[in-house]
Design a protein that fits this description.
This protein has 17 helices and 8 strands. By secondary structure, the chain is an alpha/beta fold. Strands 1-2-3-4-5-6-7-8 form an 8-stranded parallel β-sheet. It starts with 8 loop residues before the first strand and ends with a helix.
């Protein structure tokens, strides 16, 4: 269902949720880290989510063996580089990769600033080597609390020149957006874009707060906006797009089935959205799956799927000139 005359764009992919099983095994062996299995087939059930282990906590548990091998800057750099390589393999022309330096640093007591720099180095090197255009979004992990997020923001802003935006992820219910107004004032003052996880675990009020309190230009997930007609109209009128991740939402039991996912209803009411993988290393999917399998199962029409691909480029944190160049590059490349 992908239209190859258009750029293939992904805007919501967590770098630390997209680590190859082979890389986990190799890094664990290199650093003497114990794993529950010593080959890909054996390790997969401990990392990949499936129908036998749904739910948010089961999903979060799958990060254990990913972050467990991020022992130093070299490991972070490698994982970041491979993320862009994988994007190339999937046919992606432009990707925004996001990561929380505090979350990635925590297991082995690394310096979050070192994590930011190492991942940026890996992404930029892979960008040069693969030809895939990539940008970076820093994540504040709200679950750690307001004070820790201030420290995390310091680490992110220390590498301001490498990133385009800052996100707020984690426990949406326990740590509502309004607690982080000071953080995102600093983000906006630094000239960075804002995208916020909202309307996934919590309701429409979370999306309203992300917009009004933090200045969100895009919303990560946001499908529970459907519960508030005024909000739906506001999103459509103000062209605040949703970064939709249907398979991920299914895997954390935020929706009961693809068919019950609200993105179809939101699209019918004119809300912009794009399709994304979220944590493909856990969901065991790629972007093609979201277009060819998930989007159809959700009930999106062929035209709505194509429009989501158009909207993905429009929603991207790129200048109008960069978007035009990307479209031209794709058009010329497909013609060769």
């Amino acid at each position: 269902m992908i239209d190859h005359s258009l750029p293939l764009v992904e805007l919501h992919r967590h770098l630390d949720g997209s680590i190859r099983l082979e890389t986990i095994l190799e890094l664990a062996d290199q650093h003497g880290i114990a794993l529950p299995a010593n080959d890909v087939a054996g390790l997969a059930p401990y990392v990949h989510i499936d129908k036998s282990a749904p739910g948010l906590m089961a999903f979060i548990d799958r990060f254990e063996h990913m972050t467990g091998v991020l022992v130093d800057a070299d490991a972070c750099r490698r994982v970041a580089y491979e993320n862009v390589e994988d994007a190339k393999r999937e046919g992606i022309d432009y990707i925004e990769l996001r990561y929380s330096p505090w979350f990635m640093a925590e297991t082995h007591a690394m310096n979050p600033s070192e994590v930011m720099e190492a991942c940026a180095d890996g992404i930029r090197a892979a960008e040069r080597d693969t030809g895939v255009r990539a940008n970076i979004i820093g994540i504040l992990s709200r679950t750690y609390g307001v004070d820790t997020c201030l420290k995390e923001l310091d680490a992110i802003l220390a590498h301001r020149d490498h990133i385009v935006a800052v996100d707020l992820a984690g426990d949406e219910v326990g740590f509502p957006a309004y607690l982080f107004q000071e953080h995102f004032k600093r983000v906006r003052d630094a000239g960075l874009h804002v995208t916020i996880h909202a309307g996934e675990a919590d309701g429409p009020q979370s999306v309203w707060s992300a917009i009004h309190d933090l200045g969100a230009e895009r919303i990560g997930h946001g499908f529970r906006s459907v519960e508030d007609a005024e909000l739906v109209a506001y999103l459509a009128e103000n062209e605040i797009g949703l970064e939709s991740c249907p398979t991920s939402n299914l895997h954390i039991s935020a929706v009961e089935s693809y068919a019950s996912h609200p993105i179809k209803q939101l699209a019918d009411q004119g809300v912009k959205f794009c399709l994304n993988t979220d944590d493909p290393g856990i969901s065991a999917i790629n972007i093609v799956h979201e277009y060819d399998v998930a989007a159809t199962a959700v009930g999106l029409s062929h035209e709505q799927i194509r429009q989501s691909q158009i909207d993905a480029l429009d929603m991207a944190f790129l200048s109008p000139q960069e978007k035009s160049r990307l479209q031209l590059k794709v058009t010329q490349g497909r013609a060769l």
